[in-house]
Amino acid sequence: MANKAFITGGLLVVLGLVITVASDSNSVTSLIPTFVGVIFELLGFGARKKPDLSHHFMHAAAALSLIAIIGSIGSLVGRGSTGWALFAQLGTIVICGGFMIMAIQSFKAARAARLIGDI
Q1: Per-residue buried b or exposed e for 78-106, using 16+ beta carbons within 10 Å of the residue's own CB
Q2: How far apart are alpha carbons 12 and 43 in whole angstroms?
Q3: Can you say whether the dihedral through the CA atoms of 12, 70, 44, 8 is positive or negative?
Q4: Is the dihedral of CA 59, 10, 94, 1 positive or negative?
Q5: Cβ distance 24 to 112 under 8 Å?
Q6: How does DSSP assign 11-35, residue by residue?
Q7: Which of 17, 20, 37, 55 counts the most CB atoms within 10 A of its CB?
Q8: Quick one: DSSP state of residue 119?
Q9: Residues 6+ away with beta carbon under 8 Å from 36
Q10: Element (H, E) at 70
Q11: Which are the contacts of 37, defined by CB distance < 8 A and separation ≥ 6?
């Protein structure tokens, strides 16, 4: 999962930078996906450096993903975003949603493996 956190973080960093450059934005809010992506990268790095704690890092990444999804949906619905903001929010939802699906599958597989080992 650490590699998936790195990939997710990288995609979010690129999304934020592309949106900021393409929209010629002077607002720091266009970089929110980039900031979230950097946190994903740090969590992936922590999981690689401390394999015995990787499950904690990946649970934190899953929580971050959920927060990003909820925040993007909230902003999308609350403001009725258009243009580049809409693209950034939809991109964040798709990228983080994909990570969330993979994280849930991984957590379920780890639990099943643990339960089989207990038999």
Answers
A1: eeebeebbebbbebbbebbeebbebbeee
A2: 14
A3: negative
A4: negative
A5: no
A6: HHHHHHHHHHHHHT---GGGGHHHH
A7: 37
A8: -
A9: 12, 16, 64, 68, 92, 96
A10: helix 54-79
A11: 8, 9, 10, 11, 12, 13, 14, 15, 16
Residue in the structure block whose two tokens are 């809409």: 86
Residues belonging to the chain? 119
pLDDT digits (tens, 9 = 90+) for 46-88: 999 999 999 999 999 999 999 999 999 998 888 877 788 889 9
- Please name the helix (run of DSSP H) or strand (run of DSSP E) that holds residue 118, with its range, or none: helix 83-118
More confident call, 82 vs 105: 105
Fill in the amino acid letter for 115. Answer: L
Average pLDDT over residues 20-35: 91
Quick one: pLDDT at residue 118?
Answer: 62
- Which residue type sits at 60? A
